[in-house]
Amino acid sequence: MTTSEKQRQQQAELHKKLWTMANDLRGQMEAYDFKNYILGLIFYRYLSEKTEARIAKFLEEDNISYEDAWKDDEYREGLVEALLEEIGFVIEPDFLFSSMIKEIPKGEQGKFDVELLHKAIKAVEESTLGTESQQDFEHLFDDMDLTSTKLGRDVKSRSKLIAKIMMSINDIPFLHDDVDIDVLGDAYEYLISQFAANAGKKAGEFYTPQQVSKILAKIVTHEKPDLKNVYDPTCGSGSLMLRVAKESNVRLFYGQELTTTTFNLARMNMLLHDLRYTDFDIQNDNTLENPKHIDMRFDAVVANPPYSAKWSSDAKYLDDERFSDYGKLAPKSKADFAFVQHMIHQLDDNGTMAVVLPHGVLFRGAAEGVIRKFLIEEKNYLDAVIGLPANIFFGTSIPTCVLVFKKNRQADADVIFIDASNEFEKGKNQNNLTDENVDKIVDTYKSRETIDKYSYAASLDEIKENDYNLNIPRYVDTFVEEEPVDLEAVQVRLKEIDQEIEEIDRELEEYFKELGVGLDERTSVEI
Prior knowledge:
alpha/beta; Ferritin; 3 domains
């Protein structure tokens, strides 16, 4: 069995276990709600195992267990200090995931119930108070409401359900030697994607399909094996930034997210991917109205902002350095270009930015047309326009595009237009981009090659001739001409058909004669 086959098999087994857990909660609450419990418990197990790994290292030469060391005041003080320094939080022995797992089979004779878990989770957050990591753990588990009646009417019933989920999570071999996949990361991404598929419009708040993330990540890291930082102003679960880190060595991660639940998910996701609390800064606020990283500049900027979202478009923003140069603000009903302007402001002079947007940004007029023209004519920032297939995002079937911007383009540089809208794999609920589809998009972006009915490298003069309308069919001709009709051949064929009809009529005449059917009788026969 090859490595890739083994990985696929292990992924399939993992996904089956995860979905079994989801089914235990299905019917008691909506998918969008029960993801909070499964993902929260997976995350808590991760924190526990990280604690145990560090403790084992600290106590390696002392020949003492964590439980006994915790009972000793001097040991406990040293362990707390070391844990806060290395991982940013503390979980005491009785609150470890593994300790609770040992108690669950004991039933009512054991120590475990949902109130113990609630106490343990609160203790994790409280352990960070007054430390550098406080911001990254504060209210982190708020969406995993263990007192909710959706889990059961009383402590006993809630404890029984949560215990069942915890035992299932315990069966997942996060750190098994024979595992060739990133079990924890894969579990997290699988559940996020599955909940996205079942959560409809809500899904867009926290998840960008991996293949789309891959396109953006490969583009912003092109010829950049090392990145000082990456930024996503509408970061959702943080998956886009983490995808960038798979393509390049990223040192620091910065993001902002409006929805509190999704903000919590992003912080968990960063920690789950083994990032130190000092390596990321995720903020919870409105990016357009209250940007938290406004004075920073980033090597890579990526985003999949909410499509055509509403924003205030208040005249005060004409004095905001992000928007003032353009002379126009994005309309109240469509904040797409407001996000673009914000991202460009945050982009380093040598950085690359890639953003997913609805097709309307390519051709809508009025203020958006003015902004688009300024970006191309005055700034020469636009580097690529990539049309994606319709129905590849959860919760929306509209076709989208990727716009790529750079501030360090040459004056005579072209803009590569790619029409990838017809190259995808048909799926049950969504269309999917295959690895081949992704590679073709990225390779074409890099080569800037004109490919018949797929891509075209347009000069700035050509874009000007099109009045800065970026609608892809203006540049990439995908029209397939019908073969010319040979009228002589058609006439010949018509004559042949007439002859065939006459021949059939003669044969019928002979059959009727043999049957002894007269003319009057023949005309009344229903055929």
